[in-house]
Design brief:
Blueprint: E1 5-11, E2 16-22, E3 28-35, H1 41-45, E4 53-57, E5 61-62, E6 81-83, E7 86-87, H2 100-107, E8 111-113, H3 117-127, E9 130-136, H4 141-155, H5 163-166, E10 174-176, E11 181-182, E12 187-188, E13 195-202, H6 206-214, E14 217-223, H7 228-232, E15 238-244, H8 252-262, E16 268-271, H9 273-281, E17 286-302, E18 308-319, E19 329-334, E20 340-345, E21 350-353, H10 368-387
Parallel strand pairs: 3-4, 4-6, 5-7, 6-8, 13-14, 13-15, 15-16, 16-21
Antiparallel strand pairs: 1-2, 1-9, 2-8, 3-9, 10-14, 11-12, 17-18, 17-19, 19-20, 20-21
Helix pairs in contact: 8-9
Amino acid sequence: MQEKTKVILLLENGVHCIAEAVGITEPRYAELIFNTSMFGYEEIITDQSYAGQAIVFTSPHIGAVGCTMNDMESCSISPSFIVVRSFEEYPSNYRAQCSLPEFLEKHGLPVIFNVDTRYLTTILREEGALRCVVRPLIDEHDIELYKEEWLQELRAINPLEDIASRTCTVSKNTEWNEGLLDLSTETFTTSSSQVTVVVYDFGLKYSIVRILSSLGARCIVVPQDTPAHEVLAMNPDGICFSNGSGDPQDYTSAIQSAKEFLSHNIPLLGICLGHQIFGLALGAKTIKMKFGHHGANHPVQDCMTKKVYITSQNHGFAVDPDSLPESAIITHISLFDKSLQGFMLEEPPLFAFQGHPESSPGPHDIRTLFSRYMEKVMEYASRHSNSD
């Protein structure tokens, strides 16, 4: 484990905490949010949706199960740093390939610990997500001398600015044929490809394409700025917009592509950021939420069946349901705050869901959405084949 150092975690409202850290050698700025998940920390910190943010884990102790490469949701880490009450250096789990500290060090992710995370969470619940900075602290007397100066610097910075252009995305079209993980063998399954689904990568979680692949899709992952005409030239049977980070309004080229796809009859799927982009393409508005939804225990209700699903969530923006066109059918709402969780179109077939149906980490309740989408993709492919 790397050497521990003393740091100050300073919030834009003036609250500060003295803590210990590993990996902090210079100031790091971020938007501070909290995640209520009790498990799945490895999947969370490799979720590219957290770009520009720092995560406060409300679970008081993490790291007990260590880390394994098969649980990663992307090729790299995304948050600026994480904040925990305490963490385990020596995991106890037959699947663990390394400890959490070893994993963090390998991927260059700083961790702030010995912090009252319940206190921080209470502040964020009251005031909303806040800008923050973590700084190495040599002498605690420096706080009195420099705190106002540090606050001025912090308040002048927007950690989420230009995130859209900095999001981790594939550099070229990439075919994906890896299915879900078989825990008994620690290998990823494969299945025969029956249809082609193009997936826009805005910070894609691997589980999205793994589920689509397991349901018979040949997935082609494309960069986030790929023009619509290039995707249409591939003759896809379905198009999916993935999760991602930042303000959805900043993804101007993707919004334009979504508008183009809406003028065709190809089945569409929007997940998290993709849900918001399709909303904007339909003329709806998006709003910045107070503290967002980040966790694996969020109740969502199906507006048609009234069935309640426990879902995984990670987003700081939401689509304003009142701004959607009449053609959009609202399908799901959050039972936490009644915010929009899903909508659909009948023509072209569009399923848009704000949460994470790939649910990694989280319960698998809402994964049925992928099956419903793939039914439409198969129907489209069958009609397309017959017409040829």
